[in-house]
Every structure is written in C-alpha cells, then in structure tokens.
Amino acid sequence: ATAMLRAQPCHHVARHARAPPPPPPLMVRSSSYAASSSTAGVGVVRQQRSTRTRVKSKSVDDVEREVVRRRAVLMTMTRALAAVYVAQRVPGAAFALTSDDTDDDASQEAIEAQMRAVMERQSGEQVFVKQVGLQSNATDGVKACAFEISNLWRVGEATTNDLNTEWGEIIDPVNGEAARGALVFATPNFGAKSIVDLGKPEDISVAKVLGLDGDDFYRRADMLGAAKRVDKNNQVYYDWELIASPPSASCSSAIGCLYPEHIFLISASVLDGVLYVLSIDATPANWRTTGSSMKKMRNSFEVGIAAPSSDGA
Questions:
Q1: What was the pLDDT predicted at 103?
Q2: Euclidean distance between CA atoms 85 and 79, whole angstroms
Q3: 92 φ, ψ to 5°?
Q4: Are 165 and 184 in contact (CB under 8 A)?
Q5: CA-CA-CA-CA torsion for 205, 210, 211, 215, nearest 10 degrees?
Q6: Average pLDDT of 213-242?
Q7: Adjacent-strand bridge partners of 205
Q8: Distance between CA atoms of 303 and 142, rounded to whole angstroms?
Q9: How far does the chain reach from its first CA to its final CA, in angstroms?
C-alpha cells in the first residue's frame, strides 16, 4: 500500500508533464493585429504619396503655364523695344508688329536681323571712315590729308577753301556733342623738312609755331599733353592737347575763368616742305566720356594720301 501511494503521485506528475501547454491565444491575436495594422499603415503611406504626387504634378503644370505666359509677354516687349531702338539708330528701319501668330516668325527674324546689324555696328569692331581734307595742288605741293571717325558718329558738312577744310560739329550718338568742329589747313614752304626740326613737342610754342596765334583761345591755351607719333610710312607727327579758359573780359570772377571753354586736340606734320595741321575743338562738358575717342580720332591724322586733284584729274 505504501508503494502504491508513493507511485501514484509520480505517475500523476509524469502524466501532467507530458501534456503540452496550450498556446497563448493572446499572442496569436496580437500578431494578427500587428500585421493588419502594418498593412493598413502601408496603404495610408501609399495614399499620401499618391496625393502629394498629384499635387506636385499640378504645381509643375501651373509653373510651366506661367513661364510660357511670361515668355510671351517678354517677347512682345522685346519686339517693341527692338523696333524703337533700331528705328532710332538705323534710318528707315521699321517693324510691322502684329498679334497674328502666323506673322510672329517672320517678324522675329526681321527683328533679329536688324538687331544683329545694329550690334555689329555698336560693337568694338565698328568701321572707321576717313574724313578727307584739302585737295592735291601741284602748284603749292599740297596733298590731301585725312583723319578717321567712327561710322556711328555724325560729322558736320565739310567745306574746303584753298588751303583749309573745316567740318561742323561732331556728334556722339550716346553722349551728344563731342566736338564743336574740326579744322585742317596746310602751310606751303614751311621752312622745315620734318616736324622734328622744331624740337621736342613739349618744348614748342604750339600756337605761334603752327600759325594759330591769331585766335585768342589758342594763344592763351595751356599745354595739357604732348607726344611724338610715327605712322606706318615712317611719317613723323607731333600731337598735343591744349586747354583754353574764357578771356578775362568775359569772366564775372577770377574763379569763373578757371573752367575750360575749349580743349584742342592738335596733330601736325611736315611733308615735302608743307606743314599740315589738324585741330579738333572738343567739348569740355563731354570730355570725360568722349576724350578717349577724340584722341583716337586725332591720332588717326595722316598726310599725303591719294585724293582727286582740284582740276578733277
């Protein structure tokens, strides 16, 4: 009996030990819930991304439409401004601006062609035109001379009388009047074979030596600069800048006479015993903006060029 009692608990414990514990239902439900929640979250994210994509696509379309609209407005404004600009710079140029789409290409091509022509003229590669003065004269040994000026600038009509040629005012299309005029004259039998025979350019009394002292402005002018120049034919030139204040009698005060009234750019050379002089009467008010161009004009002066003689031969 004692053995049976001792064996029963052991048998009971062994039977219960062999029975597997039931799986916890709570864990199964939790996993299922997590899986369903994850699937639902992915769906929400996909929906949000799709919504953002549609919004983004709509924004891009709006931007593109706005860009096209602004380009059209800018094109219309550009065409109008180009028409005005070219009409002012190119005589006789005009544009038939129309809103008809069929004429847009032709109008744009015309505008671009005209603008290219203007830009070529306005670029640093513009043409410089010779302004010829005097005429060949076998009796006095005088030959023609010339200086160059940009084709964009306007020069007053030239008048030739015997041994001098005079031009009217010179206009810079951007800055206005650049010079009141230009003068070229010749002095035969000058008495020197070369301009260097007169000495250094800075030591010369310009007005007296060149025969300009009959004008009070030249006679009272102060030398601003002097230089020697040699052209491609080894012809020597002297170049000067003179600055002249108003006469004392015309000044209301001593301070008023300190302001210049004339800036003379002068170039001179002697060829075959004939003195040639170019004098450009620059405008002081525009000297800061046009001075460089005026000096280039003065430095282009050359003597002894080929030109028709006075008898038309």
A1: 53
A2: 10
A3: 85, -5
A4: yes
A5: -60
A6: 94
A7: none
A8: 10
A9: 166
Mean confidence (pLDDT) of the chain = 75
- Among the residue ranges 3-17, 199-213, 214-228, the one predicted with the least confidence is 3-17
* CB neighbourhood size of 108 (10 A): 14
Summarised one tens digit per residue, pLDDT across range 246-285 is 776 666 665 556 678 899 999 999 999 999 999 999 988 8
Distance between CA atoms of residues 120 and 81, nearest Å? 18
Which parts of the chain fold into alpha helices (H)? Answer: 2-18, 25-89, 104-122, 206-210, 216-220, 287-299
Residue 186: band (very low, low, confident or very high) from pLDDT cuts 50, 70, 90: very high
Per DSSP, the three-state class of 168 is coil
The whole-angstrom separation of Cα 143 and Cα 134 is 7
Q: Is the pTM of this model over 0.70?
A: no
CB 240 within 8 A of CB 201: yes
What per-residue confidence (pLDDT) applies to 4?
47
Joined together, the tokens standing for residue 132 give 């010829």
- HSE of 303 in the Cβ direction (CA atoms, 13 Å)? 28
Q: How far apart are CA 11 and CA 31, in angstroms?
A: 38
Rg of the chain, C-alpha, whole Å: 46
Q: How far apart are CA 224 and CA 263, in angstroms?
A: 9
Residue 309, SS3 per DSSP: strand
